[in-house]
Amino acid sequence: MPEENKVDNPLPPVADPLLERVKNTFFSEYFPIQAFKPGVIFMSSQEVYNLFQHLYPSENYSIADVANWLHHQGFHFLKMKELEYQWMLKPTAI
Fold first, then answer.
1. How many domains are there within the chain?
2. Which of 5, 11, 48, 62 is the most buried (most CB within 10 A)?
3. Which range marks the domain in which residue 59 is found?
4. Is 3 domain-assigned?
């Protein structure tokens, strides 16, 4: 095997392939933006979690997990009113 084809640290198997598919689909349809623009969708972590649970009900992830996924993908939240923050999501089709 040629040296350039060797892998030092192979990726571990995905623990939950369907959850990864749901996440990848969501993150391919919405992208993060830095500031408000027309066409932005505002959703709370709870609302995104509810969408995921509606599609794939599972105890393998929590609202905190969803918030971390959004954060790690580069999404930003905006203060909508006192003590209410929502994530800004821009659909890829707009």
1. 1
2. 48
3. 16-91
4. no
